[in-house]
Each structure stands twice: as C-alpha cells, then as structure tokens.
Amino acid sequence: MLEQFVAFGTDIVGLERLLRLLQAALLILTCYPSLLASLVTLASSSSPSAVIDVVSTAASLLQLQNQLNLARRTIRLFWFLGSFQSSWKLFTSRDKGVEAWLGVLAQSAFGMFGLMESVTLLDLARGGLTLFGPVEAARLDQEAQVLWLVALYASALGSGAKMLALLASRPVPSSGEGFGAALDGGRGAAHEGEAKEGKDGQVRAKEQARKHKEQQRRASADGINAKAGALGSKLVADLLDMVIPASKLGWVKVDGGLVGVAMVCSTLLTGLTVWDRCRRRLQELE
Fold this sequence. Notes:
This protein starts with a helix and ends with a helix. It is built from 11 helices and no strands. It is mainly alpha-helical. Keywords: Membrane, Peroxisome, Peroxisome biogenesis, Transmembrane, Transmembrane helix.
C-alpha cells in the first residue's frame, strides 16, 4: 500500500489529483463557517494556549485555495498539447462513428481550455509579469469556462455512447448455458472423442468443452464489466465536474459547498483510475 501511494504521489496526474482533493476540502470548509468553527474549536480545546480566530483562519484557507489552484495550473501547463494530439488522432482515424466525433469535440475543447489556462497563468499569479493584464486575464479565464463545460458535455455524451455500443455488442448465448461458438466446438469435440476413444473420450471432450465455454463466458463478462465500470466512472465524474463551470458562469445557482462536494467526488473517481494504473505498473515490475 505504501509503495502504491508513493507511486501515486510521484505520478504527475496523481499529484494533481491530490492537490485538487485538498483544494476541494478547503472549499467545503470555507463555504460552511459552522463546520470550520467546529474544527477551530476542537483545535483550540486540544491546545488551550493557542487562540485561533475563525475569520483569519477562513482568510488563510482562501489564500491557500488560490495557491493550490495556481500550483495545479502550473502542473497542467502543457497538458493542452496532449488534448490536441488526442483530438487529431481521433480526427484522422479511418472508422469514425458518433463516439469518435464526440471525442474530437471533447478533446479539442479540453485543449482550448487548457491553452487559455496556460496563457493566463502569469497574470493570475500576480508575480509582477503580465501578458494581458489582470482584468483581461480574468475575463479570458471566465470565458474559458464555456470551453470546459462544452468539453465535459461532449465527453459525457461520448462515454454514454460508448457504454451503449458496448452493451449492444455483448455476445448473446445461443442457449441458456453459454456461447454458441463454444457450444458448437464442444459438440464437435464430443463427436470426435466418441469416434476415437468411445464413451470415455466423449465424456472428457464434453468436460473440456464445458470448461472452455465457462472460461470464455467469464473472460467476456469480466472484460465487459471492466470497460463498463470505467466508462460509468468517467461519465459520473464528467457530470459532477460540469457543476463547477456552470456555477462559475452563473448558469446554475449552486451553493459553494455543494460545488466542493461535487469536486471531491469527481476527484476520487478520476483519482481511482490513476490509483489502479499505478497498482498495475507495480505488479508489472514485480
């Protein structure tokens, strides 16, 4: 577990997810003063000599949120190049269905959103260097939320379309016991065994056909379930993330604490994918 956590923390995507989770937790605390006051009271009771002001603590947490946001944007500085590359690969692929076109739209919008985040990083960091000025940078950052919302919407539609296509392509057994191909192969093996070895050969052939049929059924079901689970997690994460740009644009009125809760849930869902990837990588190294 410790090795997997180290691998997750040193992974660039995993590190960004950890910072996002911390930022979301701080957002929840600052949006619910009663919860923050309870934590401050608990901290004060554990250390009577320390006097903690709730207002100053909230201000410090808000400043820490901004710093975490800038740190995450710095990590994602060139991620928009990967989005554009993925979009181009999907666009130049030969067989393009609805899922591919939705992927092109989603990755292109993600790339444009990431590009806007990168070019306004210096202005929003307020370190003395500016490209557009604080007012123009804030306006560009606000308008970039539309691109993020479009990207999430297209990504969610693409995940839903892939899930439907996956369920539609699920093999249907010709009988209640298994796949038709495996059953036919079992019959052929049974007849051949009967011709060569008699009754004992027929029994062994039927047993081998049954085992092969069961293995084929389990492998197919496990593969479909794994793909459907990954697509379902991605779909839910995209839907939860849509709350963030929609609330920033003022299109929906959502409490800031609920935005933080949605942010926590989507971060856990997407972080779980990175966590599993790190686990598989460690297993390959063993």
